[in-house]
Structure formats: C-alpha cells, structure tokens
Amino acid sequence: GVPSCANSLFQNTIVRDEWGFDGFIVSDCGAINDIIANHKYTSTPGDTCKAGLLGGCDLNCGGYYGANMENAVNGGSLSEDDLDIAVRRILKHMFWLGMMDPAENQYYKTLGPEHVDTAEHRQLALSAAEQMIVLLKNDGDMLPVDVSKTVALIGPHANSTQDLLSNYHGTNTVVNSHSPLQAITAMLGAGKVKYAQGCDISSSDSSHIADAVTAAKASDVAIVFLGINNGQESEGRDRTSIVLPGVQEQLIEAVMGANKNTVVVLINGGQLAIEWISTNVPAIVEALYPGEMGGDAVANVLFGKVSPSGRLPYTMYPANFVNRSFFNMDLRNESGCTYRYYTGDALYSFGHGMSYTTFDYKWSADLSTSQLSFDAGRVGRQEDAINYTVVVTNTGKVDSDVSVLGFITAQEQPDAPLKELFDFGRVHLAAGESATVHLTVGPSGLSLVDEYGVEAIRAGHYKIQVEDLSADLEITGEDHVIFSLPEMKERHAFLGRH
Question: pTM of this prediction?
Fold first, then answer.
C-alpha cells in the first residue's frame, strides 16, 4: 500500500481536485519519517521527501523535512518549483491569519497570562461538563441524592484529578482542586462525607475493599467512582478487554452487598462492559472524562443542582463484543459495529440519556401529513429543505436541558445503516415550559455511499424517528449523485471486490 502522507490519489486527486480543499496538509508527528523507517516505502531521504511533498503533504510535524529537504532539492529528487507549491499554500494561510501583519494588529499577541483561566473560562468548563454527563439508569429515582444524606465516596476515581482530563491536554493545575471528593465535600461538609478508595484502577490488590465496605455501611448512600485512565487507553495502548480492569468489579459487588443505596459513576473515554453493574446497581452515571471542573459538574448532577441532559456518544457493548477480528474494518462484520450497524443486544445504545424530569414530544402543526415526498435532485442541490418541527414540553417538576435527536432509516436500500443521526437540537425548559425544536434532513443526512465510494441520494422510502415520534419520508425521481470517483469501480473490479 501507499502511506497516507505519500498518497497523491487521496491528498491531491480526491481532497484537492474533487473536494476542492484549499488549505495545506500537515503530517501526523513523525509520519514522514515512518515512510522510510517503518513502512519501508522508500529507501533514501531524498525519495522520502519526494514521496511526501509530491504526495500532497505540505508540512511535516517532526524534523524530517527540515533535516533532509535541502539535500533532496540539491540532489535532484525535488525541484524548487515542487517546494514552492507547498510554501505558497502555507504562506497564504499565514497571511490570511494575519501572522504577517504588524504586531500591534495581531490580536493574539495582545493576550497575556491574565487572559488564561478566567472566571468565564472555568464557568464554561463547568457548563460543558454538566451538559455532557449522561444518566444511564435511575431505578426508584435513586438520584438526585438529597443533600441531607450522608455519603460514602468510594473507588479509584473518587478523588481523581488529572485523570479527569483524558489525554492530549496542556498543563492544568485547576483540576487538582476539583476532584469529585473535593467538590462533594465542599457541597455537603466534611461531616457528611466518608472516603475509601477501595482499590486502584488496574492492580489486583483487594486488601482495601474492606475499608470501602465499612464506609458504605456507615453511610446513607454509597457513590462508587469506577473506570479507566490513560494507563489503559491512549496512543499506543489499545485494550483487548472492555470490562473494568483490576478488582473494580469485586469492589462494586462488595459495596452493593453492604449498601443497596449505591450509585456508580463511570470515568472513562472508551466503552465499558458493565453487565453486572447494569443489572444490579440502581443508578448509573456516565461522566466520561469531564475535564478541569469535572468533579464539580458530577457533584451538581448527583445532588440535583443540575438535571442530567447528556446523550451517550457511543453504544455500550457487552464484554464478548471484542471476541472478533478488528482487522476486518467492515462495520457490518459479524453482529455489526457502532449504532449504525450493531444488531446485538446493547447495554446502552448511542443517544441514550435520562433526566430528572419528563418530556412530551409532538409534531408541530406545520407537519400536515405523516408522509412527505421530495425529489432527490432538488434535495441534493439544496433547492428543497426537509424540515421537521417538534414541540417539546417539560411535563415534570424540574428545570432541565433536553437534547432532541433525529434519526433516519433507509428502508429499501441494501447495506444501509439501521439508522443514522441526521440532526439534533438542545433547549432549556423550565418545568411546564414548551419550546419548538427544528431539525433538518440535509443531503449529508440523506445520502448513502455504496461499495465503490459513490455518495448519492437514492429514491425510496425512509423512516424518520424523533424520540417517540415517527414519520414516513419518500424520495422520488432519479438518484442524485453527490460525489463519485469514476476509477473506483474499476479498481474494485481489478482487486476482485465485486
């Protein structure tokens, strides 16, 4: 194969010529060196620079171009004209960004340390974290926890700070004083909070689980913070199992045995298989990696200062989901992969998310029929817009945000996704309040891509699903091609992929 950074078909023919991309392309860090050192695609530094530059990669993250480009030009592997193409692309955007303007006219040069970590920044971080937290389960209205209760904060993430940040972030010291333990103690007072780590993320040491059991027995509610961190998932660390590592399962089973009023909070990035927890624990919160103000956001959700409104950004699979070959990149392989193709039993599906209140959804009056009909060409050329308007009412007693998701299913197209998110809206509703949410099915939400890479809006019957509402959609006329590469069908035929 051809390394991505040297792939002229993709970077030049498709991205620039077909898609009209007018920017410059930057390699992943070290990727130009990979062309020769790891992919063995080239044999000399000159040929490596040539492969990258003529392949369409203008800027090297790393030192390979800098160390070898001059010799590549002097040695004849590349011409100065070849180099000038990449230089012009880069300089053009530097000019557009104002980087060549006088210093006093460059806004970012006026910023200093006083503009970093402002009160507004912290409030934005808190609000973002509150909005993304997902309530997976809440049997018996276990949540929110009454602030008059005593709580045991248990688990390897109960006092986490840096682990709340995920990875690829700058230096952050703010989070060091905003762990869940710190935030909940500040909210309730130290007298109402007991803390026992119980175990760490991945070790087999279970000697401290007894401390967690003691804390759980002595408290009205046990809140157990479980999950993973960069030690299990990051660049260069792929998981072969999606169950909780170490003795975390043993910890939660012991705590549940001591106190049935138990809540689990998950801190993680990738999916976790939590079959036992899902069956046995009454309330589960998915906090993902909530960032620098994550502890405060989790506390606000757990104790009802904020109603949860996040939606799950992926499907949560059972543990045996990984018992397949992931070298087969076909999303329809075996029981399928992602919410678009997965046919197995999910623990929680993409888009799942509960609230502390209830909502009612109705089509607005301007949706006059249950079926709408549109011409594929007019939709593809954006001459017609397919709009759905939903009236959402907060029928409960708690003010809350609500996220409204619109899905589409192509009912007659071979290999079409089971469903696909086409639009979403988010509104804040006081108890008893109603609002109108507008969702649009655009060309990207309606189009399908076949095995030859042809993207088209295809005539046929479609189903629209918005929460518990559904409507039929008919697309008529000739299929409208949005994008195609004529040579792709021949290439597939040559490779025997009929």
Answer: 0.92
Question: How far is residue 239 from each of residues 244, 290, 319, 322, 344, measured CA to CA in Å?
Answer: 11, 21, 12, 9, 21
- Across the range 414-437, mean pLDDT stands at 96
Q: Return the beta strands (E) in 4-110 as ranges.
A: none
Sequence letter at residue 181: L
Tell me the pLDDT tens digit for each residue of 255-272: 999 999 999 999 999 999
Judging by beta carbons within 10 Å of its beta carbon (0-12, 13-18, 19+), is residue 248 exposed, middle or buried? buried
Instruction: Characterize 336-370 residue by residue with b for buried, 16 or more Cβ atoms within 10 angstroms of its Cβ, and e for exposed.
Output: bbebbbbeeebbbebbbbbbbbebeeebeeebeee
Q: How far apart are CA 9 and CA 182, in angstroms?
A: 53
Decide if 396 contacts 432 (C-beta within 8 A): no
Could you list the active site residues? 28
Nearest residue to 353 (alpha-carbon basis) of 286, 411, 298: 286
Contacts of 340 (CB under 8 A, 6+ apart): 331, 417, 418, 419, 420
DSSP letter, residue 174: G
The CA distance from 490 to 498, in Å, is 10
